Amino acid sequence: MKDEYSSFVAKRGSVEVLLELDKGTRSFNQLKSLGLSPNTVLNRLREAQELGLVKPLLLSSEKRIRIRYGLSEDGRNLVSRFHLAASRYLKLQRQIRELSEDKKRAFKRIALELVRS
Questions:
Q1: Mind listing the pLDDT tens digit for each residue in 54-66?
Q2: What pTM was estimated for this model as a whole?
């Protein structure tokens, strides 16, 4: 894997954006639903475009021009090489969020017990 790809993939939100685009073209608003900040999504899209991993697709209608994003051939090749690792990463990320929520609930429960005693 190219060094620049490695540093890009290591950034927060990169894997999520690439995997979502692997499912098909997406608008910026659709990518915001990944749970990332709009600035993070925008930065990852720009960086991926600069690396040639993502390409914008302009769709025009009578009212306005819309932009959707899709993976380039290089982007599809990269995603296919790390698909298994990426799915494991997303699973671990989900587990970390769940553990964090469990920890918050446990602290609240302990605090309530301390207040009651």
A1: 999 998 877 888 8
A2: 0.69
